[in-house]
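Look over both lines before class:
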Amino acid sequence: MKKFLKKILVLGLIIAALQFLVGYNEEAIPSRIKDDVKALSVKQDIVLFSDSSNWYCSPKDTDRRRISEFLQYRMVGRRVLAIDDAAWHMGSHLAFCKYIAGREKKPSIIIISVNPSTFGPTWYRRPGYQFEKELFFLSAGPARVFLEPLRVFKLIKRNISEEEFDNTPVYCGDKLVGLAKDFDHSKVKRATQDMVRKTFVFHYMEPIRPDHQRLQDMLEIVKILRPLGIKLIFYVTPTDVQRGEAYLPGQFHKQVQANVEVIKAALKSEGVDLLDLSQAMPASHFSSGIYPNAHLDQYGRSFVAEYLAKVLKENSY
């Protein structure tokens, strides 16, 4: 048995050495980020990191442009690139920033959306939102050439299991109200009012602590980009506070605002301002569907783009 394990180890080392000598090719890039990596090989003026809030439309929209496309329209002569997978979060934004830092061609400006729900357990702890392969490739520098052998030998593993996620505590303010398995209705097509209320709790109502990993990721982004001279803008995505208050009266608005203040204070400690659009949109401009989210209709997306364009122009970015 020991001889067999030694042979496997030697074989693994040989594969890794060959991979290092050959480097990686396009086939080795995880498919989820292949287009983004290709786009970053070209000089971009502005990169917008976001999630589905950048592109998700209302069924009634006649203009289906993304926030980034509305922004491109307003920033004539500037190249705007959106990196916006449906479930990207501050950890994935950090990984991309590490990748950009190691590239010769860097954008002049990076805009990062801060979606408050990505700090909650529904996003932060969900196994399918960990993106281990993608984050390894983007963050590992020269060691990314080892991605393929690591995948072959299944050495890149999930950070959290489904069972661990199901048993994640859920808080409404400081009160423990249950476990994730009692609040996760993402696969239920026909929601009751109680399910919608629980989803608001699951997404938004846990207080963000100063030591939250996503906050640490955000601060690391600042520390990586500042020496490179890349201008950095963080903005909080609009949140459906009106609808949230209807389900959690007297609580939802306060908790969202308290969480925004924690994020704002963390950035302030690094001398960076936070643009707060969390309460900029009435419920009528959200395309929430069954469950609450940060998806806007065409007027909401256009508003966010116009606001960002105004900030860029006013600051001569």
User: Anything to note?
Assistant: The chain has one domain: 40-125+160-314.
